[in-house]
Specification:
The chain is α+β, with helices and mostly antiparallel strands. It contains 14 helices and 14 strands.
């Protein structure tokens, strides 16, 4: 017999027993009255419990299950167990949803949940930022009403969501987003957005780099190839042959300089090439750079070395020498004959070491200054190629200075000249004697403070 039936029998049994006893004592009339009264009591008992059950069912979901007696005790106990199990499931579900939302909100990518009509149901903060959404106003609005980028509209209309698309961010057109729609459940979708501005910039830089290298190598290779064919096809006299060979040698040297600069730049950017720290006197290095500048100039320029403070520097001597030499060689190339180039060194009030190269050359327009350290960036391509530059010198300078936590300041005015200043951090510079190894290349130069012609 079922527990509920067994628990419900005592009350009818008690009424029946009372009716029989009263029948035996007082007759059938009173027995019927007892039966009617007992039946009404039983009905009232059940109605009261039904009302309690109804009130509980209509009340809050977390309301306690009523306490019952008799048959209703087991019923309410079963409901209590079921409600407790349901509450546990709901609690676990809430925790899962909270964890999902917490994870979605912490994601570096944007996530927008859409319903079967592509209406916005939820979005994480990154999606709000990238797509320019306002959930307080845009919830339940079609996503195509909020994101009106032509590429996105065409993507949504196509229905082909197997791949992502690139588009400008609606909230900031300087940023590039990768967007993809991912269907899930029955008809719902997730719209995923990722900021790929830096990735696209690197890809563009890589494409430009390959195109520039190909262009830089194409010209000398074309020249060499043409001269080789000429030497093979024509019977040239010794003077013409020597002239062609000299031009071929110059073009080969140009390619060699380009390859060497590429290798240098690659080494500077490599994670597996740590900076070789050493401590050295700055004056001998400056004397060597000055001597190299005079050799490159062949007497066409007045070159001065102005050393205000002797110092000891910690860093990569060869790398800093390469950076200084690149700045000086640029000054020589872009300063007309008869101009003046001044190499300076001093320690600033903040303790930073400052190496500067000032020329009276052609100068640089302000629109070019932010891009000067980009690979192969040239203000005047024809002039740069004519002077023998590879277009990588300032890029090498930038990476050397990054490895030394140093800065490059550029001040220039077209027609009046330029000043390139390297500022080494104070932690790498300390005042010291100007003595040190005297390099053969610097023989005949003075290391005394002040301008050295």
């Amino acid at each position: 017999m079922k527990d509920a039936i067994r628990a419900g029998l005592p009350m009818p049994a008690a009424v029946a027993a009372a009716m029989l006893i009263v029948w035996a004592i007082a007759g059938s009339g009173w027995a019927l009255a007892v039966l009617a009264g007992g039946a009404l009591a039983i009905v009232a008992y059940h109605l009261v419990n039904i009302q309690r059950l109804t009130d509980w069912a209509r009340g809050p979901l977390d309301a306690d299950v009523p306490q019952g007696t008799g048959a209703w005790s087991d019923a309410f106990a079963a409901l209590h167990r079921r409600a407790r199990t349901r509450n546990a499931y709901q609690r676990d579900l809430r925790l899962v949803i909270e964890r999902f939302r917490g994870a979605a909100e912490a994601m570096p990518d944007g996530v927008v949940a859409l319903d079967d009509g592509n209406r916005i149901k939820w979005a994480n903060p990154r999606a709000v930022e990238q797509l320019g959404l306002d959930l307080a106003k845009d919830r339940n609005q079609p996503i195509v009403n909020m994101v009106r980028t032509p590429e996105f509209l065409a993507y949504m209309e196509s229905g082909r969501f197997g791949a992502s698309i690139l588009m400008r961010a609606p909230a900031n057109h300087d940023r590039i987003l990768s967007v993809q729609l991912v269907p899930f459940a029955v008809a719902e979708k997730l719209l995923l957005s990722r900021d790929v501005t830096e990735v696209e910039a690197v890809a563009t830089m890589r494409r430009d780099f390959i195109a520039n290298v190909s262009h830089e190598l194409k010209t000398p290779l074309t020249v060499i190839s043409g001269f080789v064919e000429t030497l093979q096809d024509l019977d040239l006299d010794a003077r013409q042959r020597d002239r062609f060979l000299q031009l071929m040698r110059e073009q080969a040297a140009s390619m060699q300089r380009l390859v060497q600069d590429l290798l240098t730049l690659s080494a500077l950017e490599s994670e597996h090439n740590p900076l070789a720290e050493e401590t050295f006197a700055i004056v001998p290095l400056l004397l060597q750079v000055s001597a190299d500048a005079k050799g490159l100039s062949h007497g066409a320029h007045a070159i001065e070395l102005d050393v205000r403070d002797a110092a000891i520097v910690t860093g990569g001597r060869d790398e800093l020498g390469s950076a200084f030499s690149n700045l000086v060689s640029n000054a020589v190339r872009y300063t007309p004959a008869g101009g003046r180039i001044t190499l300076g060194w001093r320690i600033g009030p903040d303790g930073r070491g400052i190496f500067s190269v000032t020329d009276t050359g052609i100068g640089i327009g302000p629109e070019h200054l932010p891009r000067l350290t980009e690979r192969f960036y040239r203000v005047d391509r024809s002039r740069s190629r004519a002077t023998g530059g590879t277009g990588l010198g300032l890029a090498i300078v930038k990476h050397v200075l990054l490895r030394h936590q140093a800065d490059l300041d550029i001040a220039s005015e077209p027609g009046k000249g330029s000043t390139f200043s390297v500022r080494l951090p104070a932690a790498r510079v300390r005042q010291g004697p100007d003595t040190g190894e005297i390099l053969p290349a610097a023989a005949g130069e003075s290391a005394a403070a002040g301008p050295v012609p």
